[in-house]
Amino acid sequence: MTNPLREYEDWARACMHVRCGLCRENCAAYRQFEMDSYSPKGRITMLHHWLEGTLQPSQEMSERVHACTGCGLCDLACGYPQSEAIQSMKNQLFEAGYGPPSSYAKIIENAHQTGNPYGESNQSATEFLSAQPESQSTGMERLYFIGCTELYREREQVENVLRILRKANVSFGLLSENFCCGSPIYRVGDVGHAKHHAGQLVEQLVERGTKEIIISCSGCFSMFSNIYEDLIVELPSLQFIHITEVLDELVRTGELNLGKIEKVVTYHDPCHLGRHSGIYEEPRNVIEAIPGVTLVEMEWSGKFSHCCGAGGGLKAGRADDAVALGAMRVREAEETGAQILVTSCPFCLRNLRDGAESIKSDIEISSVVSLLMSSMTNYQEGRMLN
Ligand code: SF4
Ligand code: SF4
Predict the structure, then answer these.
(1) Ligand 1 close to Cβ of residue 129 (< 6 A)
(2) N or C: more exposed end of the chain, with fewer CB within 10 A?
């Protein structure tokens, strides 16, 4: 079978010849490790020599390739799909027996043992989910899918989403137990196992007659929207909607009463939601709809947003490096004068919070969902006072 990396052969050769290195400076991994072999160009050089037969895959190569967070910022430097090629290197290294470093591999081991990348017992998730009235409903054309990170690490996000959807009378169902979408496993190169998870989940959705899926984790959203079609033969027709799209619609149509929050806010675009899925406006619309909020932008934002450092398994595999990158992003937010740094992905939320804590930053870290919930609470309390 032809090595799937051949797809990138001509481009990697061209990259070798131009020797420009434009993609290097803003690469998340290069910013942290400051070595060429940790830059996009360094990884593409390895890919080129692997295909030429002048470099053999190895655990050392795997270590450098897995330092990539998959943020996709390098793709904008010259228009070549570096991040896709690097993900393919992770996959091929896994196939060749050089999987991710052991600190990342626990994601795979945990998923094998418990069905979720955190290695948590599924009992607490099942108890929480089956206690929600929506998990009992039979007509599940629209489903709110809760990813493992929110379910096991950021439960408050889930509770806020549920409150908002209920308040706005949005009809939706819930699965009564957790099914990992497979994203964390895919990102560290275990395509076969990710396929298994994806297939299992889609089977559940088909069984329930689901047509639309609301997703609040940007990592899961990107997995569903961009990767599932490559993993599942004959993927049924499903519509994937990010929670910020739902909230934007609810705010625009006046379904939610919003109270004042007089704060300066900046927004961090999660790589999976922004660059990988093209959703930039909706979260900003929601933030700007809150009375009293002033939205300011960081220098590197929108399409050119710097990575928070949590992606590609870095948060699990090299926690200190991920947090250091989170701290860099927090510093960028501080430079805007913002009081709150808001994002819309539980991975970014966790890593920015850890980054802020590591540098003792005063900036508040929040999410679009939590900010909106606070605004709704302020409205409610204001009415009660009046
Ligand atoms: S910007 Fe493109 S051509 Fe230049 S080094 Fe990076 S990958 Fe190669
Ligand atoms: S995807 Fe991000 S971390 Fe990976 S090589 Fe490109 S810029 Fe660097």
Answers:
(1) no
(2) N
105 close to 316: Cβ distance less than 8 angstroms: no
In the chain, DSSP finds a helix count (H) and a strand count (E) of 20, 7
- As to burial, measured by CB atoms within 10 angstroms (0-12 exposed, 13-18 middle, 19+ buried), residue 229 is exposed
With a 6 Å cutoff on the Cβ, whether 41 touches ligand 1 is yes
Question: Does ligand 2 lie within 6 Å of residue 305's CB atom?
Answer: no
40 C-alpha vs ligand 2 centroid, how far in Å? 6
**73 close to ligand 2 (CB < 6 Angstrom):** yes
Q: What is the rounded CA–CA span in Å between residue 140 and residue 207?
A: 10
Write down the pTM of the prediction: 0.95
Q: What is the pLDDT along the chain (386 residues), one digit of tens a residue?
A: 788 999 999 999 999 888 788 999 999 999 999 999 999 999 999 999 999 999 999 999 999 999 999 999 999 998 899 999 999 999 999 999 999 999 999 999 999 899 999 999 889 899 999 999 999 877 679 999 999 999 999 999 999 999 999 999 999 999 999 999 999 999 999 999 999 999 999 999 998 899 999 999 999 999 999 999 999 988 899 999 999 999 999 999 999 999 999 999 999 999 999 999 999 999 999 999 999 999 999 999 999 999 999 999 999 999 999 999 999 999 999 999 999 999 999 999 999 999 999 999 999 999 999 999 999 999 998 866 65
- CATH, range 257-385: 3.40.50
d(CA 20, CA 40): 12
CA of 31 from ligand 2 middle (Å) equals 10
How far, in Å, from the CA of 40 to the mean position of ligand 1? Answer: 8
Q: Does domain 102-248 have CATH number 3.30.460?
A: no
Q: Whose CA is nearest to atom 4 of ligand 2?
A: 68
Name the residue of 13, 48, 76, 82 whose CB sits within 8 Å of the most ligand 1 atoms, as the mutation to test its pocket.
82
Residues of the chain with CATH 3.40.50: 102-248, 257-385
